[in-house]
Please model this.
Amino acid sequence: MRLFVVAVLPWTLFSASPAAGRPDTVGAAVDEAFRPLLAQYDIPGMAISVTVDGQQHFFDYGVASKEGGAPVTRNTIFEIGSLSKTFTATAATYAEALGRTSLQDHPSAHLPQLAGSAIDEATVVNLGTYTAGGLPLQFPSDVTNDAQVQTYFQQWVPDAAPGQQRRYSNPSIGLLGHLTALAMNVDFADLLQGQVFPKLGMSRSYVDVPQAEMGSYALGYDADDAPTRVSPGPLDAEAYGVKSTAADMIRFVENNIAPDTLEAPMRAAVEQTHVGYFEAADMVQGLGWEQYPYPVSRESLLSGNSTTIAMQTNTVTPVAGEGRSGSRLFNKTGSTNGFGAYAAFVPDERIGIVMLANKNFPIAARVTAAHAVLQRLSAETP
Model:
């Protein structure tokens, strides 16, 4: 595998420390943590982007597709899977910042057909934190169109009252995105591509990859090593539909590290996604992002990203919508059948990392590698 290392001009908000900004320091940490994963999990290609004190670094491994053989670059487009949920959350808080919705709204405020249903007992916050009362990970297989989605929510029977348990759910945050689009009077894909991405300075991020960009769209590879891309599904754009690049995603991370560089409504939106609402084991669930006190041990980070948290129902403790108290690490994973993604950042340390790969490999391996890099960077940052 070839490794390409490029450090670009500093992001101007912070002055880079000499040690933390050195490409050899960052590169050694990334290469040691991530390079072995390509062979271990038969990953065709991977793009890593890192920000330290506002300076971006890019590390590109392997190929965007085995068939074409083009090398991965910072501008290769990857599916980011459930990392898309952080954009759905940002769209919702942006709509609130514009006065178009409230995080305390109930679904029927924007979709009157849900009035009187059990789902209408939940709030926007419950939908965005998977605490509506037990919505499943996926829609049932016979739910395939908008009418069936609406009927599903009208007939859904909860396991608990809102705010008592967390059950990670695509329908939950999918409905959040749908309600947000209704409040903004625009299609959800158009909301992201026409408003959210441009205001975040992301020029090559899409829900629907345009034909002119298809040559930059990596092929993913499934468990049988067959080429694949994400399949359509109900509320897929809202839950797992974003495709992006390492360059765009590290810009998004930088915007989260320093939201005050953004225009007022988007600044408020990003800051709102940093509020924690419910604690589950080692993790506090916000809108999109999951957070931990920093420094955080690898074991705690692995626990918060485990199948126990992702696939099972967990009792939660409300944390009263508190903002960040002390240093925090924010993270989110994402996967489709052929892609794996991970992003993590620590605002107080001014460090962040994004990993995009065209193979869905174990989340524990992604988290372990990223944690090792962040620990190294944190030690280097004064």
